[in-house]
Specification:
Helix content: 55-70%
Strand order of the largest sheet: 1-2
Distance between the termini: 14 Å
Number of strands: 2
Order of helices and strands: EEHHHH
Shape: elongated
Largest sheet: 2 strands, antiparallel
Number of domains: 1
Length: 131
């Protein structure tokens, strides 16, 4: 029997999105503490995570708006990936600022993977509605 819901790591995609947002939020705080950063930019992953967490949570609370809310989270996943592309600006001296560049790399890769998973979720939902 086919699942009625798109799942990642055997959890619903909405819950996965909340966990992803919490990961980004924690990452921004932890990396800022570890690096002793006094720059607000080290918290960019945390800032990007807030709408992902918020709109994922809202899609649980207001299921009739789930499609809209999850499209918003996908947009912020893409923004995360694009923000991580700032890593390329440091070439050829990549990782000269190790913590900042590591954070950008995490944002790029996780944002790209999350955006891909969002697209897969939307395809799953579209195929389910066409059945």
């Amino acid at each position: 029997m086919k699942s009625q819901e798109f799942k990642v790591l055997n959890i619903s995609f909405v819950n996965f999105s909340i966990f992803y947002g919490l990961f980004l939020f924690s990452w921004g705080i932890i990396i800022s503490i570890i690096s002793n950063s006094s720059s607000i930019t080290s918290y960019i992953p945390s800032f990007i995570s807030i709408p992902i967490i918020l709109f994922s949570w809202l899609s649980l609370l207001i299921p009739q708006k789930k499609k809209l809310f999850m499209h918003i989270t996908a947009t912020f996943g893409l923004i995360c990936a694009l923000a991580g592309l700032d890593l390329l600006r440091g070439l050829p001296n990549i990782f000269e600022n190790f913590w900042a560049d590591l954070s950008k790399m995490i944002m790029f890769t996780s944002g790209l993977i999350y955006t891909y998973l969002c697209i897969q979720s939307f395809i799953f939902a579209r195929n389910k509605s066409n059945v």
